[in-house]
Write a structure and sequence with these properties.
Helix content is 44%, strand content 17%. It has twelve helices and 14 strands. Helix 3 (82-94) packs parallel to helix 4 (107-119), helix 5 crosses helix 6 and helix 11 (311-330) packs across helix 12. The longest helix is centred in the N-terminal third of the chain and has 24 residues, at 2-25.
């Protein structure tokens, strides 16, 4: 009797141990790759993105993960280099076996790794703005910033309201600048706007007074559009104002970091640009679907990093949030996660309210943009003055 009882107890204990271990084994570590320009000329973008992604993944894990699974974020600093982005994408997919990649920070990098993600059937959620990233659609490639064409349309709508018809376009020599210029040239005729001059400047430029002088000599120019993501975009503003040229200056959505305003100083006053609602979250109506998450994100980011939140960090916020929603539905499966992202509807984010489809891997509407201006060194809603 005694021996039989002991044997039963031991077998019962073994069963508990085995089944307990099997239960624990069901929980997974889901690897997420990230490629951000934390250093280099695009650090204004990549720094906030990397900090945001790390913060959100930490919050998700502290809250119990996703369906009990833990996220592991593997961040690679590309320094804004397309060559490094290519190498890191291959490493993350082939060696680290990540479920998905968020980033890169720049359009040039994103375009270079778009095919890699597609060939390896690995979800890529870019944090860069160029429309070519998702147009034409690639099955596994998505992006969170609003479309270039939407930014161009918002700028031209504002110009129409101001009676502006003749402009100059200046861009940084990056993928973002190149594709932005293409959209401006393509859409301008729809709004009766004529581009009288086009100039490109080096992303490492420290003085653009000669370029500004060239534009100022064209007396018919009524406004300048400066489409850029690089620090040199602030130099354009400074050089324009230093000459006493009181021409309206429009920037792209690549201006959505208060650091660019600080770099330009007083010359930033009055700049007009399209951006998401993150930069004016406190002015939104209480029933706005984005307000609560924007206010909470800004609070958490500023408390954690002691710096202002930016639209760029918001792109990473959306990338992590979209992936979070998809993993809740699809688990750690690349194909199922891709399908789940494409099925997302009416998901509030930092950049807007996302509704994806097989034809639209950006998921945002023209309404995702508002026009902002700089007043007393701060971003405020543009009121048409």
């Amino acid at each position: 009797m005694r021996k039989g009882y002991i044997r039963k107890v031991l077998l019962a204990g073994l069963s508990v141990a085995v089944f307990g271990f099997a239960g624990a084994a069901q929980a997974e570590v889901i690897k997420i790759g990230a490629i951000f320009a934390e250093t280099g000329g695009a650090a204004f973008l990549g720094g906030p993105e990397a900090r945001t992604a790390r913060m959100l993944v930490e919050q998700i894990n502290q809250a119990g993960g996703i369906n009990g699974d833990t996220l592991e974020l593997i961040v690679k600093d590309s320094g804004g280099s397309p060559e490094k982005a290519i190498s890191f994408a291959k490493q993350l997919i082939e060696e680290d076996k990540v479920l998905a990649i968020i980033g890169p920070s720049t359009s040039g990098e994103s375009m270079k790794i778009k095919r890699i993600a597609e060939d390896h059937q690995t979800v890529l959620i870019s944090c860069a703005a160029a429309e070519l990233i998702v147009n034409p659609v690639a099955s596994y490639v998505f992006k969170t910033p609003q479309k270039d064409s939407f930014a161009a349309r918002k700028i031209f709508q504002t110009m129409q309201d101001k009676g502006i018809r003749k402009i100059a376009v200046v861009v940084g020599n990056t993928g973002f600048g190149k594709t932005g210029k293409q959209q401006l040239k393509k859409i301008a005729p729809e709004y009766g706007v004529e581009i009288l001059a086009e100039e490109t400047y080096d992303k490492k430029a420290t003085d653009l007074s000669a370029l500004v002088a060239k534009l100022k000599s064209i007396e018919a120019i009524e406004a300048v559009v400066n489409w850029s993501i690089v620090p040199a975009q602030s130099i354009i503003a400074k050089n324009i104002r230093q000459t006493g040229w009181d021409v309206p200056l429009f920037q792209s959505h690549g201006f959505g970091n208060i650091g660019y305003v600080q770099a330009a100083g007083e010359a930033a006053e009055g700049i007009i640009f399209p951006c998401g609602r993150l930069l004016v979250a406190d002015t939104l109506a209480e029933n706005n679907p984005q307000k609560a998450l924007l206010v909470e994100y800004i609070r958490a980011y500023q408390k954690r990093f002691n710096e202002d939140a930016s639209g760029f960090g918001g792109y990473a916020y959306d990338a992590v949030n979209i992936l979070h929603e998809a993993i809740k539905v699809a688990g750690n499966d690349r194909k199922k996660v891709r399908d789940a992202i494409e099925a997302i509807q009416n998901l509030p984010g930092a950049s807007g309210v996302f509704s994806f489809s097989p034809e639209d891997h950006n998921g945002l509407s023209l309404d995702s943009f508002v026009m902002l201006t700089v007043k007393n060194g701060q971003f405020v809603l543009y009121q048409g003055q």
